[in-house]
């Protein structure tokens, strides 16, 4: 037996020497994050914040120019969701504006009676009918506003539901290579996080925008009836208020974007302190104090920033009120001059004051809501544009249905390159697979094994003229989803569905509620999942998620057995096993291979095994060796060992490792 020290020396000599320049000695202390300047400078802009603060950068002209298109877009969404409710919102909102204007006119009539000549009791009694009219208009407006709220409550959830259902339907069915694109992922999460959220809010905002605009128009109409010369006074009064409102709105949007960015870095530490996956190592390293100290430093900086922004906002509000007050003072001075000159009766002047105050309030609301609608509409447009893009990325839904059985699958000169990559993952692959065969794909990571398997499963489509044929029929002439339904896939990192144990099997057949009991039991036995499920409270009905009360948590090896059972339950003519036993112990792995690959061979099924542990592929009918996107060797285990190529080298290396471990143990 060789000396243990020789083995250690051999292992040490296999360690590669450092390449390039030597790494310098690190500093004795480093900051945990940005310590000077703007904390936000150290963070990249996230996918979900691209439109935050957009309203603070837009000019008034840009906002006003875009509002009509926004209103039309939201109107079309509302009309498609519920025509009756949408029409009710429009009609009732117009009625509300009319009641507001009529109420102002009735108020002027009340003032006219109160300011008339004669004893005070007589004037008060004379004004009572007009007061009742004012009360009637106010009551009617309240009823109409309630009607608007009811109609809006009907249409808004329907818009959200329609958009969300369409969004999830489209994203759940886009082709797999699209999902592999990181940019598409960012767009998808941005549309989900922001687009759907603001799609629900923007209907109410558009209604508020219309109410403010109609209110402004209504008060202008009242002033025009009282005296045409009052209209220029209205502009003189409301424009300074509007200018101040624009500045204040922009400041608020800018403040929100900055605050949102600052909070992101704080949340990094909050997540680490609360995250379950980090809890054990956090406590083992006793790192809580260090993270809490950094959290405290950042929150102190943010509190200082909040104070600065609050003081700045208060100063801006004061300046806006000062400018607005000056304009209002000039307006009231001019109004007083008109009264002195006899251009207006006193009652009309008092009514003008009421109308001007109402117009100022409507304008301020109009400015605020316009900024909200402008910015939030960008998110809704982003959502709709993303959905439109997804419609172009759907799999084929026309063509022949895939056959329920297959005798031969042929790949001819198949190539595939992932989005954003220059080097092909597969380059000119050709092979023929026959029913009843067990085939293995082996090779180093990134050699193309899994990509080839996904092409076989119909999840990817061949490029550059290559073909994949089932019994001589090109898969591009078949309905894509019917093809995918004919392939059972078991992956190394299976989805841990938060459903019952039984539903975790039946989901492979497209159902969560219906099962074939005997098929489920057979699949569980063959995969080794029978003992896992038998040990659960509730057995088949046990919920496999701690998110539910009484839910169960499985180990990685147990989930692997459930995943194999899921693939077997599908009972498809093609079964792909991509590192299915990587997280199993050796005994469980051996049992799965014995049951799936050796004990129950199906003459009508093609089984493809991808594995780095070559002991499991020895009994396969044919082994394909992948390297750099090409097939470099193929044959049975013995043929490849006799060839003395890459497969023989890998197998010998693994076998020697096991022998060395056995020798050391002895």
Automatic annotation (TrEMBL):
Record's bilayer topology term: Multi-pass membrane protein
Domain ABC transporter: 409-653
Top-level division of the source organism's lineage: Bacteria
Compartments it resides in: Cell membrane
Stretches for region Disordered: 1-36
A Pfam family this chain is assigned to: ABC_tran
MF terms (GO), sorted A to Z: ATP binding
Matching PANTHER family: ATP-BINDING CASSETTE SUB-FAMILY B MEMBER 10, MITOCHONDRIAL, ATP-DEPENDENT PERMEASE MDL1, MITOCHONDRIAL
Protein name per Swiss-Prot or TrEMBL: ABC transporter ATP-binding protein/permease
Native species: Streptomyces achromogenes
């Amino acid at each position: 037996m060789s000396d243990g020290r020789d083995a250690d020396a051999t292992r040490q000599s296999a360690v590669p020497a450092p390449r390039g320049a030597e790494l310098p000695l690190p500093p004795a202390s480093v900051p945990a994050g940005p310590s000077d300047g703007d904390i936000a400078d150290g963070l990249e802009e996230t996918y979900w914040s691209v439109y935050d603060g957009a309203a603070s950068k837009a000019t008034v002209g840009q906002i006003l120019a875009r509002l009509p298109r926004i209103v039309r877009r939201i109107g079309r969404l509302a009309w498609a969701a519920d025509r009756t409710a949408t029409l009710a919102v429009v009609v009732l909102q117009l009625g509300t504006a009319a009641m507001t204007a009529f109420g102002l006119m009735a108020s002027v009539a009340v003032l006219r009676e109160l300011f008339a000549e004669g004893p005070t009791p007589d004037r008060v009694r004379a004004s009572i009918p007009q007061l009742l009219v004012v009360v009637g208009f106010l009551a009617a407006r309240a009823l109409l506003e309630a009607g608007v709220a009811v109609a809006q409550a009907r249409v808004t959830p329907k818009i959200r539901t329609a958009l969300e259902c369409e969004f999830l339907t489209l994203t759940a069915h886009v082709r797999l290579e699209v999902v592999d694109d990181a940019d598409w992922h960012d767009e998808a999460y941005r549309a989900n996080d922001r687009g759907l959220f603001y799609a629900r809010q923007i209907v109410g905002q558009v209604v508020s925008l219309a109410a403010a605009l109609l209110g402004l128009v209504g008060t202008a109409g009242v002033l025009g009836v009282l005296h045409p010369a009052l209209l220029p006074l209205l502009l003189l009064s409301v424009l300074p208020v509007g200018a101040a409102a624009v500045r204040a709105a922009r400041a608020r949007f800018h403040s929100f974007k900055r605050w949102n960015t600052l909070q992101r870095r704080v949340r990094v530490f909050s997540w680490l302190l609360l995250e379950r996956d980090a809890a054990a190592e956090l406590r083992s390293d006793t790192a809580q104090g260090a993270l809490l100290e950094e959290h405290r430093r950042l929150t102190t900086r943010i509190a200082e920033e909040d104070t600065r922004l609050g003081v700045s906002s208060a100063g801006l509000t004061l300046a806006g009120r000062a400018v607005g007050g000056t304009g209002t003072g000039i307006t009231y001075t001019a109004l007083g001059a008109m009264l002195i000159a006899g251009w207006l009766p006193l009652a009309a002047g008092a009514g003008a004051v009421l109308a001007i105050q109402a117009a100022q309030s409507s304008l301020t609301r109009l400015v605020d809501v316009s900024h909200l609608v402008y910015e939030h509409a960008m998110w809704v447009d982003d959502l709709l544009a993303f959905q439109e893009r997804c419609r172009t990325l759907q799999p084929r839904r026309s063509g022949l249905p895939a056959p329920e059985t297959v005798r031969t699958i042929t790949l001819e000169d198949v190539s595939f390159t992932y989005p954003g990559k220059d080097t092909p993952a597969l380059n000119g692959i050709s092979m023929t697979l026959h029913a009843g065969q067990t085939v293995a794909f082996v090779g180093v990571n990134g050699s193309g094994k899994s990509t080839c398997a996904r092409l076989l499963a119909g999840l990817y489509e061949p490029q550059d003229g290559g073909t994949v044929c089932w019994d001589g029929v090109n898969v591009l002439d078949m309905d894509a989803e019917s093809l995918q339904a004919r392939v059972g896939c078991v992956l190394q990192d299976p989805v841990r569905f938060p459903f019952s144990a039984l539903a975790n099997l039946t989901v492979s057949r497209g159902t969560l509620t219906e099962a074939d009991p005997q098929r489920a039991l057979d699949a569980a036995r063959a995969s080794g999942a029978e003992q896992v499920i038998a040990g659960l409270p509730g057995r088949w009905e046990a919920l496999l998620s701690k998110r539910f009360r009484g839910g169960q948590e499985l180990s990685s090896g147990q989930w692997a057995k459930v995943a194999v059972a899921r693939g077997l339950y599908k009972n498809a003519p093609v079964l792909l096993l991509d590192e299915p036993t990587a997280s199993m112990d050796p005994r469980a792995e051996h049992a799965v291979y014995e049951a799936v690959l050796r004990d129950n061979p199906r003459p009508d099924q093609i089984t493809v095994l991808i594995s780095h542990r070559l002991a499991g592929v020895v009994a396969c009918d044919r082994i394909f060796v992948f390297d750099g996107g090409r097939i470099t060797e193929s044959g049975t285990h013995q043929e490849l060992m006799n060839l003395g190529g890459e497969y023989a080298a890998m197998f010998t290396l693994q076998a020697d490792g096991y022998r060395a471990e056995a020798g050391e143990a002895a």
